[in-house]
Amino acid sequence: MAFKFIALACLVAAASAGLVPAAVSYAAPAYHTAPVAYAAAPVAKLAVEEYDAHPQYSFAYEVQDGLTGDSKSQHETRDGDVVHGSYSVVDPDGTKRTVDYTADPHNGFNAVVNKEPVAVKVAKVAAPVAYHAAPVAYHASPVAYHASPVAYHAAPVVHAAPLAYSAPIYHH
Fold first, then answer.
1. How many Cβ atoms from other residues are within 10 Å of residue 131's Cβ?
2. Which residue, among 113, 64, 120, has the nearest Cα to 92 in the 3D structure?
3. Which single residue of 38, 70, 121, 135 has CA 20 to 30 Å from 110?
4. What are the distances in angstroms from CA 130 to CA 120, 123, 126, 127, 133?
5. What confidence tens digit (pLDDT) does each residue in 12-59 have?
6. Is the pLDDT score of 2 beyond 60?
7. Nearest Cα to 171, choosing from 22, 27, 10, 26?
8. Would you call 59 helix, strand, or coil by DSSP?
9. What SS3 state is found at 1?
10. What is the pLDDT of residue 80?
11. In angstroms, how far is the first alpha carbon of the chain from the final one?
């Protein structure tokens, strides 16, 4: 029984290696269809924005969040090449920083920064807890360290002979 199994395994291995021809199967004939007509996709037209020689805008916003204490605002106007604006923010150190700025072609960008203290309400979360840690006695014991020598032996390098490949043998 073992011999039959080994013989079958060798036959499968030989067929996989191409030494024994495998069963030949034929595909159904392919039919060629008429060529497909090709139409080029239309070219997208790019929208060209008009140049505004004298742009004008004005915007503003403000945030006042009583829960987090976030407080900031900004406003800005533009008339041609001249911009005027201001923004303010409450910094983490409790001061309100206000920046007034202007920009124009003649003077460039200029900003003036002002800081002023702000009375910010701080919610008391919990009362402080007194903590007294017990003293810990620590006695270090001496550590003995003995290093043993390390032996290093390099493994020999083995080079295998190159493999030779041949074309599969077919019997017809």
1. 5
2. 120
3. 70
4. 27, 20, 12, 10, 10
5. 776 666 654 555 555 666 666 666 666 666 766 777 778 888 999 999
6. yes
7. 22
8. strand
9. coil
10. 94
11. 31
